[in-house]
Recover the amino acids of this structure.
């Protein structure tokens, strides 16, 4: 963490802010409750985070009101500097959402009609919709079944002389094999845009997401590891020329004022969001470590309960720092939806990210993909289930989640419905 991230806060202040955060958290919520006292477990409880830092947030919002700078302004500049330092890049350009960050990156890469952009099918809609918005064609690649991330071998098969860009998505908080992606891109003069919306702080070989490709797109949507109190996004790059385009395109292509050399969009981050994110960035490393600890604890609990061969647990690949935006298990034999229903009956939140690959979505039918043509995406969309993993989740809450899953599995075994799950094979974990 560099000094610019610390804002006007010294290292000492940062440590005491973190200590006070931990203390507030310990006094709150379900921390004091035993398993039997806990009524419900939310998929994500943002109030816990807010409760612990609300005074700092209030101060930050007041600063913005006092400054009178509500759009862009000093807080946004500071955020751009902070994220550049955090993600180890030279330039950051804040914008209105993660979706816009992808769109702006494609605009800066001059992607347009006649171009193809390779994207994973197993991702959030925004990764591909930005491509079509510019008149280009998304080409869907399949995933590696262990990491859920785009499969470089399938990218190789799908490259044509019209391929202008690849958008690897670091899904659920784990980085794609960017070494393989960059190798493919370099041999074809292809632009790489990392969709790092779910993966701020994730690392491959010690280097952070957003610094590997030509550009990186981030989201500050509230459910993300670094979320604001509304929409927000940002593009990172190490390329001065791309940074200039991004700075131009996100303010209507206007430079100087009221002179437009290119047709841009209005995608500005507001200062309230930036001020809140600047506060929260001080806590990001702590929160990330808590997510990592929660993931480790789930793994241990599932193994102790003998469930690791009944459901498929998520894996951290070699040389990665997984930041666990989601902890996603796989449930075989068409039992995923029943398990989700059982958790819901027990008032335990879970979610399916994503119930369909994009190649199966109605709006992309014109591209002509058969559902099982991307077989790993097809299977994952029918088997994945994400469980609560937010930083403040307590050990007893985790026990409750694991206990409900064990109870479900045991009820099936009693009826001989569930055989042991074979782990997916491609790419060693
Ligand atoms: C992988 C991925 N890409 C892009 C986005 C879009 O970000 P936003 O919601 O900020 O527009 C999201 C957020 O949901 C996402 O998860």
């Amino acid at each position: 963490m560099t000094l610019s991230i610390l804002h006007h806060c010294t290292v000492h202040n940062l440590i005491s802010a973190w200590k006070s955060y931990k203390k507030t958290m310990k006094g709150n919520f379900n921390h004091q409750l035993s398993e039997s006292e806990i009524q419900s477990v939310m998929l994500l409880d943002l109030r816990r985070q807010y409760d612990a830092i609300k005074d700092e947030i209030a101060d930050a919002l007041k600063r913005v009101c006092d400054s009178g700078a509500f759009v862009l302004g000093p807080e946004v500049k500071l955020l751009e500097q902070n994220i550049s330092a955090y993600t180890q890049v030279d330039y950051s350009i804040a914008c209105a959402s993660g979706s816009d960050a992808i769109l702006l990156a494609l605009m800066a890469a001059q992607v347009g009609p006649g171009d193809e952009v390779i994207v994973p099918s197993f991702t959030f809609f925004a990764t591909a919709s930005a491509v079509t918005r510019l008149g280009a064609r998304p080409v869907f690649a399949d995933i590696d079944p262990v990491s859920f991330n785009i499969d470089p071998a399938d990218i190789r098969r799908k490259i044509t002389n019209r391929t202008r860009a690849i958008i690897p998505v670091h899904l659920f908080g784990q980085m794609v094999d960017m070494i393989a992606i960059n190798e493919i891109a370099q041999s074809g003069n292809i632009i790489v845009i990392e969709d790092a919306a779910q993966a701020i702080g994730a690392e491959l070989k010690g280097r952070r997401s957003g610094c590997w490709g030509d550009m990186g797109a981030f989201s500050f949507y509230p459910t993300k590891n670094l979320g604001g109190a509304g929409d927000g996004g940002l593009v990172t790059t190490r390329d001065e020329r791309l940074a200039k385009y991004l700075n131009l395109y996100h303010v209507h292509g206007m430079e100087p004022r009221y002179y437009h050399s290119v047709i841009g969009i209005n995608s500005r981050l507001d200062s309230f969001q930036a001020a809140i994110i600047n506060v929260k960035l001080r806590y990001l490393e702590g929160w990330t470590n808590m997510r990592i600890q929660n993931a480790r604890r789930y793994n241990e609990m599932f193994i102790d309960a003998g469930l690791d061969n009944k459901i498929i647990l998520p894996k951290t690949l070699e040389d990665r720092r997984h930041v666990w935006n989601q902890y996603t298990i796989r449930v075989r034999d068409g039992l995923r939806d029943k398990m989700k229903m059982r958790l819901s009956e027990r008032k335990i939140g879970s979610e399916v990210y994503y119930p369909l690959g994009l190649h199966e979505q109605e709006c992309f039918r014109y591209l002509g993909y058969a559902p099982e043509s991307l077989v790993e995406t097809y299977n994952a969309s029918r088997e994945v289930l994400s469980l609560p993993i937010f930083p403040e989740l307590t050990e007893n809450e985790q026990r409750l989640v694991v206990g409900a899953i064990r109870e479900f599995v045991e009820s099936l075994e009693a009826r001989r419905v569930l055989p042991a799950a074979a782990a997916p094979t491609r790419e060693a974990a």
Q: What stands out?
A: The chain has two domains: 64-281, 284-414. The chain is about 40% helix and 10% strand. The pocket of pyridoxal-5'-phosphate is lined by residues 97-99, 123-124, 126-127, 169, 195, 197-198, 219, 221, 231, 233 (CB under 6 Å). Residues 97 and 217 are 9 Å apart (CA to CA).
